[in-house]
Amino acid sequence: MTIVIRRARPEEYEAVGEITAQAYLGDGLLDFGESDEYLGELRDVAKRAAAADVLVAVVGTGAAERVVGGVTFVPSGGPMADIAREGEAEIRMLAVAKEARGHGAGEALVRACVERARATDGCVRVVLSTQRTMHSAHRIYGRLGFTRAPDRDWNPIPDLDDIMLLTYELTL
């Protein structure tokens, strides 16, 4: 399967949002299912694209082209950053459709983000947050040279102690 990574087009936003939402729901990463407030954020690709770079993984060509994954790349200092500090880019909302997993789309999306970070003036590091149960993603990050940064782990919902997010970083 040949995978192409490029910027998401507006007509693909709905598909990217649904792939992202279904990945998080299907993997049990949202505590409240369809009513989870974060689900709306995952589906609102237009909002993300206005503030960051939304990249897609596509397979096929022409009329047979289809989106199989997406990621949000937040350049250094971008408004969508959760944990990035000065000089750092952030990777957010990485998701691959269930039927396309295991074929390299997730890794290709992360590689594209690292390449964008390297091309960003003043960017010295890429950071990301992940849940403890995202083992496939952890393997991708490790293969690409990311290391754990436990001192930067954080909780997006302070009242729920079991939601601690793990932080990974890659020094460029």
TrEMBL record:
InterPro entries in the cross-refs: Acyl_CoA_acyltransferase, GNAT_dom, NAT_camello-type
Note the CDD domains from the entry. NAT_SF (cd04301)
Which GO molecular function entries does the Swiss-Prot or TrEMBL record give?
A: N-acetyltransferase activity
Q: Which domain of life is it from?
A: Bacteria
Asked if the keyword Glycoprotein belongs to this entry, the reply reads no
What are the protein's UniProt keywords? Transferase
Q: Which residues form the N-acetyltransferase domain?
A: 3-169
Keyword Transferase on entry: yes
**Which Pfam family is one of this chain's hits?**
Acetyltransf_1
Q: Which PANTHER family match?
A: GNAT FAMILY N-ACETYLTRANSFERASE, LD18367P
Q: What is this protein called?
A: GNAT family N-acetyltransferase
Q: From what organism does this protein derive?
A: Streptomyces liliifuscus
Q: What is the lineage of its organism?
A: Bacteria, Bacillati, Actinomycetota, Actinomycetes, Kitasatosporales
